[in-house]
Amino acid sequence: MSIWNSNDKFKNKYRIPSARAKWHNYNDGCFFITFCTKNRMPYFGRITCQQMHYTIIGKYAHECVNRIMELHPDVTVSSWQIMPDHIHLLVIVRKPKHGNSIPAICHNVPDKPVSHANIAKHCGRLSHIIGQYKTAVVRYARKQGLSFAWQERFYDRIIHNESEYANVKAYIENNVRSWKST
After folding, report:
1. Which DSSP category does 25 fall into?
2. CATH for 20-108+118-176, options being 1.20.950.20, 1.10.150.240, 3.30.70.1290, 3.40.30.10
3. Domain map of the chain by residue range?
4. Most exposed of 12, 21, 61, 162 (fewest Cβ within 10 Å)?
5. CB–CB of 155/21 below 8 Å?
6. The overall pTM is greater than 0.90
């Protein structure tokens, strides 16, 4: 047994299993993503009169969504909303052969696990993109001397069809209006 084997550390007691679907590779597809600030702190702004009012970090987080598509031509963020303490993204990750068609991405994604267990060993393109995004926002906050932290990980839901895509898109677009002001 090697001391460098990650499964040996602490007898694997503190390892947290991945939240990602083991049967999907996350290198292409359509995804509903949500990630939160640490302790759900409203770092991005506040909502009053059903409008989001951004802080300096919130404005930068918004700019970074557009940068995702500049840095990754194979990725489209078709809908997004920065909320006071979390962000929703509707992300399409394409393999070059898929082109820009949303229907080609969202059709025929299996509802149940298929035999892709070997693919689960890799973090997938989506995790890489979200990690870059989160890192960019943290670095910006630190450069500005602002307090900021993300909650670990992110929530994802694989979009299986156009109906689900339309429902998620509507949810994201109506999120500010349905926010309960505190």
Report:
1. -
2. 3.30.70.1290
3. 20-108+118-176
4. 12
5. no
6. no
